[in-house]
Amino acid sequence: MTLNPNQAQSGAKMHSLDFLHQNEEELSINITSLIDVIFILLIFFMVSTQFKKASIPLDLPKSEETEENTENDDTKVLAVNAEKMELDGKIVSMEDLQALLEEMFAQNPKLALSLECERTVDFEQVVQVLSKIQNAGISRIGIVHENLE
């Protein structure tokens, strides 16, 4: 088999083009390590930078009157469990509750009520108690609960 000179030259060109394609694929730059270095520098600058809060020094006046947080007659405790209800240690029925609360509120308009319910109390009973408290006009209500832990 004999090749004419044109075929020989075209075959040589084909081999040289294949060589160029192989070199193009191998000439890519791997930037993985460059990205690692950039992230390390970013973390370094984030950790070493100090941020200062913009603030204005204020000299606020102090109050001459101080309010002592002592126990007084403004707070009453209403303890509710499945069997009974106690208002400051005295047993109260559901029917008498609203009248008692209205009387206490009329004597002391700053009356606050601390409602303590056990887990065994039905939600319906709690809603009834809250309704009677609201109907008596008391708006300062604190609900005390025990931790579930």
Explain what this protein looks like in three dimensions.
- This protein has 149 residues and is an alpha/beta fold.
- Helices cover 44% and strands 15% of the residues.
- The chain is built from 4 helices and 5 strands, in the order ααβββαβαβ.
- The protein has helices spanning 5-26, 32-48, 94-107, 123-135, and strands at 75-80, 85-87, 90-92, 112-117, 140-144.
- Strands 3-2-1-4-5 form a 5-stranded mixed beta sheet.
- A hairpin with a 4-residue loop joins strand 1 (75-80) and strand 2.
- Helix 3 (94-107) packs parallel to helix 4 (123-135).
- The longest helix has 22 residues, at 5-26.
- It is elongated.
Outline the fold blueprint.
Elements: H1 5-26, H2 32-48, E1 75-80, E2 85-87, E3 90-92, H3 94-107, E4 112-117, H4 123-135, E5 140-144
Parallel strand pairs: 1-4, 4-5
Antiparallel strand pairs: 1-2, 2-3
Which word captures the global form? elongated
Please outline the major beta sheet.
5 strands, mixed
| Helix and strand sequence | HHEEEHEHE
Q: Tell me the fraction of residues in β-strands, as a range.
A: 15-25%
Number of strands: 5
- Poorly predicted runs are none
Quick synopsis:
44% of the residues lie in helices and 15% in strands. It has 149 residues and is an alpha/beta fold. Helix 3 (94-107) packs parallel to helix 4.
